Amino acid sequence: MPTGPEIILTLKVLVTAVTVLFAASLWAIATGRRKLHGRINTVFFVLTLTTVLGFELLIRLGTDITSQFSDEAKRALTIHLYFAVPSALLLPVQLYTGVTHRRSFHIAVGTLFLILWTGTFVTGLFFLPHGG
C-alpha cells in the first residue's frame, strides 16, 4: 500500500500532466481548432476523473495520507481541496455543455473552472508536502 507522501507526489505529477493537456486545449480553441479542443478536453476529463476516483479508492481502502503530515500540511491539503473538489464537480458540466454546443454557458462555466483549476494546480503543486 502506498504511503501518504507517495500518493501526494503521484497526484502532483498527474495534476501537472493534465494541466499540460488543459493548456493544449486552450491553445486549440484559441487557434480555432474546435474538434481538437473537444478531443483534448475529453481526455482531460477521463484522466482527471480517473485520478479523483483512484484517490478516493485509496482513501476508502484505509490509506491515511495525512498521518505523517504536520498541522500546516493538513491545512494546505484542505485549502487544495477547496479548489479541487469544485473543479471536479464542474468537469461533467463542462463536458456536457461543450458536447451539446451550449457555447455561452460553456464559456461562463469554463471561466470559473479556469479559476478553480489554477487554484488546484498552484496549491497542489507548490503547497502540498510530499516528503516523509
From TrEMBL:
Top-rank taxon: Bacteria
Keywords of the record: Membrane, Transmembrane, Transmembrane helix
Pfam families according to UniProt: DUF420
Transmembrane segments: 6-30, 42-59, 79-98, 105-128
Coiled coil: none
Protein name as it appears in the record: DUF420 domain-containing protein
Organism name: Fimbriiglobus ruber
